[in-house]
Design brief:
It is a single chain. It contains 43 helices and 28 strands. The longest helix is centred in the first third of the chain and has 30 residues. Helix content is 57%, strand content 10%. About 2% of the residues have low confidence. A six-stranded mixed sheet has the order 1-2-3-9-6-4, with helices on one face. It has a six-stranded mixed sheet with strand order 16-17-18-24-21-19, with helices on both faces. The protein has a three-stranded antiparallel sheet with strand order 5-15-12. The radius of gyration is 32 Å and the shape is globular. The two termini are 31 Å apart. By secondary structure, it is of the alpha+beta class. Helix 8 runs antiparallel to helix 14 and helix 30 crosses helix 32.
């Protein structure tokens, strides 16, 4: 009884303290604020009201400003005054400049990241840095150096985007631009080639990630009343911030130290191009004040000015151009006219060399379009000062000492009182007079600040943005992947797009001008001749079949293989529509017919009954062998039987099963930790990207016995392998629709040159691992013989040919990485669309595991035993239902080795391709009933809630017959472990509940552009 009394007393005391604190807070907010005094700005709530609108904060401020151009929010210690009145802004930023400062409140928040840098200080420290920076920015050396850097990185960016354009892949434009501008600011700021754009710098990538995370976490302090307490206790977001700042500090201090040593050896050179070198020279005159910590602060302030602002502005710029395609074409025409380029420009390096200062001065319409973007989407959407004394603003309202006065650049760009009735329209013409750019007052167009603190890098920013824009628009036309979806911002210091900007880049004239086969002069004539020959072959083939054996009948024609090109981005929908009409149909090609079936009887016949007559064949082998070699997914006959026999034995061993389950649990717990950090900071995640990285870590541990740690990004070599493997996979699939791929391979150009380079990266990495494992086996032969060989590579080392061993292992990687990650991504998507199913899965998992404490993710993972997994029938059903609708391999093809007749009575010729369509089959009403297109896990359960299997020829997600997937149980185990752990700890929601995602057409059914979700602790 005594313990209950203590608990009751403690609870009561805690509630009393909480109530007292809340009452004191309310009293502080409303006392002494002159709420009803009309000489002060009208009150529109408290600062805590901003929390209610945090995700749309700037739109909320705009709505209020349209009614009240100047208003107040009450805070515990002071008021925050928000204004869009141009007179007030000029008063604060210029007329009474010395009476308004950053203030102690802002400095306390910013100091841990930005230290004593120019954006965080006032007084003598600000004046000293301003004076030094002003001189440096005015030098010709720095201007010429920065322009050369901008041109170089713009050319690199064009080449990267070209790869996406050729492969028809969606790219996150904002991510690309962030990387490009980071490379530029590192080169100009530090004199370092970071190479973030091509992902070759693991240390640099870690720094970028830490810097971006720190930026968001520092901004979170403005709405977190407990941040100082959390910093003292080193918990939550403040612990994460401290960890990230250490990464930043270590990286920057190492750079400063290295640069000092380098300059000491180069004393004879006076022309120091990068900013760090020039500040280091200045520090020698005053080493006490300008120590390494002070230099670190100065440089990081330049970084946030030069990286995020330009990249976010360019992202919004390309978004607006996609929404206004006529303006996009008008800019491209201007760039072409000014640079004097040919209509079919071919060389990016030659083109960027033309973008001189003189050329950039003539590109007025581009300058106007960028400025119009900044008017509507300013890089810094809101900024302010703190009143050092009582004051009266020009609009008549009074300000008390200590009050914050904020100007709202985002809201100002939308004020009809400032910009007219068309204020919210994107109209570059408003900045032009007789075709020449006309600037506005900096207190009206406030994107670059104004007064003594006006941005010193304004001209540098315009120069960088114009070079990058001109280069990209000259070579590509951009389209949004989803025209109907409006993107929005993420509320932080700079106006980033929430979830990125996903676009398709289309090479102008429909080709890759810089590097692909179609840039060869005779290509268009050759292409026309080739297409004519192909058309004749198709027609001849059709007529021959009609006049051939009258007793044979062939499947109805659904079109030609070229119809697939026209419907490539919705290929599986297109084939589902045809399957709903015909069940089984043909597409005519120049060399063979392609038969597509969704009839389970036909599927059973080709995969089992007449198995020996249907195999991968030379056509599929020729496409796949460069990447997958003689692995199990590319070969037939003896090679296939040999690998199947060895694999079948290995997958049945308890050692491998236990080892793989332990790896799945460990990596699922790592992923859970990342989700926990995202939940704490309300960060949107691409869960598909995280699943891809985490399952790659698992397959590397199981296959190679190697800790890749891709999900944390700490293994640079492994990250390069992962990137190369994904690119090589996509380029290999592209061969199926690229009729010129063999010629390009022979000439080593375009996509084939890139594929060769990526395979080189893959081979170097895999052979190194094989060599290390082999050496380990030879060096410790006796110990090795008695060891448990847990990973697959150790168990396959009896194969002596390294090339064959490489092929076997890479086939395991493609089977174990993409398939489970893609399925888990679609599974989370379906659970977000069906929250009741999500909760039902959670309830079952909790009952099966009995786990209650979810603070230690490894402990929770440990509760997910084999026995617990066996009890999770509803989870198993929900994953299976996901696979029915979104099979990891949406279509699979075999070659017919001799003339045959399928069970449906139609004939197939030798050399024809026969493909069963798992994606279409999952949507066929004659197979699954009228509710075939609905997500219903219950269809897999009997009346007792026990999972019931279906025929593998009806549910073909794991193939069937002799080639049925050996890793099926491993895949289910991995997916159930990940799902059980993540769902028991977190609730998932789409960033936009009404969003509908689509697939990317490739071997595996990836979600196009990723799956962006919010996670919440349960």
């Amino acid at each position: 009884m005594g313990i209950f009394l203590i608990i009751f007393a403690f609870t009561g005391f805690s509630l009393l303290c909480l109530l007292s604190t809340f009452s004191l807070l309310i009293l502080k907010i409303y006392s002494g604020k002159s709420i009803k005094d009309p000489s002060y700005p009208p009150v529109n709530g408290t600062v805590f009201h901003q929390l209610l609108y945090f995700n749309r904060l700037y739109d909320y401020q705009t709505e209020v400003a349209k009614k009240q151009p100047t208003f107040r929010l009450l805070g515990p210690a002071l008021s925050e005054i928000y204004t869009t009145d141009i007179r007030n802004i000029e008063h604060v930023l210029k007329t009474k400049f010395d009476k308004y400062s950053k203030g102690q409140y802002n400095q306390d928040i910013l100091e841990d990241l930005f230290g004593q840098g120019i954006f965080a200080v006032d007084g003598d420290k600000w004046r000293q840095q301003r004076k030094l920076a002003s001189f440096e920015f005015s030098t010709r050396v720095l201007r010429d150096f920065s322009c050369a850097v901008f041109r170089t990185n713009a050319a690199k960016l064009v080449k990267v985007v070209s790869g996406f354009a050729v492969a028809g892949r969606v790219l996150d434009m904002q991510d690309m631009l962030m990387r490009c501008t980071l490379d530029s600011i590192f080169k100009v700021g530090f004199g370092v080639d970071l190479n973030c754009l091509d992902g070759s710098s693991g240390e640099g990538t870690e720094f970028m990630k830490a810097f971006d995370e720190s930026n968001a976490l520092v901004y979170w302090r403005y709405v977190d009343p407990f941040w100082k307490l959390k910093r003292i206790s080193n918990i939550g977001s403040e612990a994460s911030l401290k960890k990230n700042i250490k990464v930043i500090d270590d990286f920057v201090h190492n750079l400063i130290s290295t640069k000092r040593s380098f300059l000491a050896m180069q004393q004879d050179s006076n022309e120091k191009e990068d900013i760090l070198s020039r500040f280091l020279l200045a520090s020698e005159k005053d080493p006490d004040k300008m120590d390494d910590q002070y230099l670190r602060d100065i440089i990081l302030n330049f970084m946030i000015a030069g990286k995020d602002t330009s990249a976010s502005t360019l992202s919004w710029f390309f978004y607006l151009l996609c929404k206004n395609p006529l303006i996009q074409e008008k800019i491209e025409q201007e760039v072409r006219d000014v640079t004097g380029g040919e209509k079919n420009e071919t060389n990016i390096d030659d083109f960027v060399a033309k973008l001189t200062d003189e050329t950039l001065e003539k590109i007025n319409y581009l300058h106007a379009a960028l400025t119009e973007t900044l008017r509507l989407y300013p890089a810094v959407p809101s900024d302010g000062r703190c009143a050092e004394t009582d004051d009266i603003l020009p609009d008549g309202y009074r300000v008390k000492k200590g009050d914050g006065v904020y100007y709202m650049a985002y809201a100002m760009g939308r004020m009809p009182s400032i910009w007219g009735e068309n204020a919210e329209e994107f109209r570059p013409e408003r900045w032009l007079e007789n075709g020449n750019f006309q600037p506005e007052s900096p207190f009206k167009f406030i994107a670059f600040h104004a007064g003594p603190r006006i941005c010193l890098g304004k001209d540098f920013a315009y120069r960088q943005m114009k070079i990058v824009s001109a280069a990209l628009l000259r070579f590509f036309r951009f389209k949004l992947t989803d025209d109907t979806r409006d993107v929005t911002y993420r509320t932080m210091f700079t106006l980033h797009m929430d979830g990125g900007l996903h676009v398709c880049a289309i090479s102008r004239k429909g080709r890759d001008n810089s590097m692909d086969f179609l840039s060869i002069p005779f290509s268009f004539k050759a292409l026309a001749i080739a297409l004519a020959i192909l058309a004749v072959q198709i027609v001849t083939k059709t007529l021959t079949q009609k006049s051939g054996n009258k007793q044979k009948k062939y499947h109805p024609i659904g079109g030609t293989v070229f119809n697939q090109l026209l419907n490539f981005n919705r290929l599986h929908h297109y084939m589902t529509d045809l399957a709903a009409k015909h069940g089984t149909y043909r597409l005519l090609g120049p060399f063979r017919s392609e038969v597509y079936t969704s009839d389970p009887a036909n599927v059973e016949y080709m995969l089992k009954t007449n198995f020996d007559n249907y195999g991968k064949g030379s056509y599929n082998y020729s496409i796949l062998k460069d990447l997958l070699g003689d692995g199990i997914f590319t070969v037939d006959g003896e090679k296939w039987r040999e690998q199947r026999k060895i694999s079948s034995h290995e997958f049945s061993t308890k050692v491998l099963r236990d080892f793989s389950s332990a790896a799945f649990r460990k990596n699922a717990a790592k992923l859970a930790q990342l989700l926990s950090e995202a939940a704490n900071s309300d960060k949107i995640l691409d869960i598909q990207d995280l699943f891809m990285k985490s399952t790659l870590d698992s397959i590397f541990k199981v296959a190679f016995g190697v800790e890749l740690d891709s999900v944390c990004g700490s293994n640079e070599e492994g990250t390069r392998f992962s990137s190369a493997f994904d690119d090589a996979s996509a380029m290999t699939v592209w061969r199926y629709v690229d009729i010129f791929w063999k010629i390009k391979k022979f000439l080593n150009i375009g996509s084939e040159a890139r594929l060769k380079q990526r395979i080189g990266v893959i081979d170097t990495f895999v052979y190194k691992i094989i060599r290390e494992k082999t050496d380990q086996m030879h060096d410790f032969q006796e110990e090795y013989a008695s060891m448990k060989k847990e990973d697959i590579l150790s168990r396959f080392l009896q194969v002596t040919d390294p090339k064959y061993l490489r092929d076997i292992i890479l086939n395991f990687v493609i089977a174990g990485k993409d398939t489970t990650a893609a399925t888990l991504s679609w599974f989370i998507y379906m659970l977000c669309k069906h929250p009741a199913v999500q909760e039902k899965v959670v309830q079952e998992v909790k009952e099966a595991t009995g786990a209650k404490d979810i603070t230690d993710f490894l402990k929770v993972a440990g509760c997910i035993s084999e026995e617990a997994l066996e009890k999770m029938h509803y989870l198993h059903a929900a994953i299976t239902e996901t696979l029915r609708l979104y099979p990891a391999v949406p279509a699979d093809a075999k070659m017919c080795f001799s003339d045959d007749t399928l069970p449906d009575g139609f004939s197939v010729r030798k050399g024809d391709m026969v493909c069963y369509q798992a994606y279409a089959m999952g949507r066929m009403k004659f197979i699954w009933g009228d509710d075939a297109e609905e997500f219903k896990p219950e269809r897999w359960l009997d009346e007792n809630g026990i999972f019931q299997k279906e025929s593998p020829f009806k549910f073909t997600a794991f193939q069937a017959g002799p080639r049925i997937c050996l890793g099926k149980e491993f895949a289910y185990r991995q997916m159930k472990i990940y799902s059980a752990l993540l769902l028991s700890c977190f609730k998932f929601r789409l960033r936009n509940v009404s969003e509908t995602v689509n697939y990317r057409t490739m071997i595996n059914l990836h979600i196009d552009g990723g799956l962006h979700v919010r996670v919440f602790h349960r």
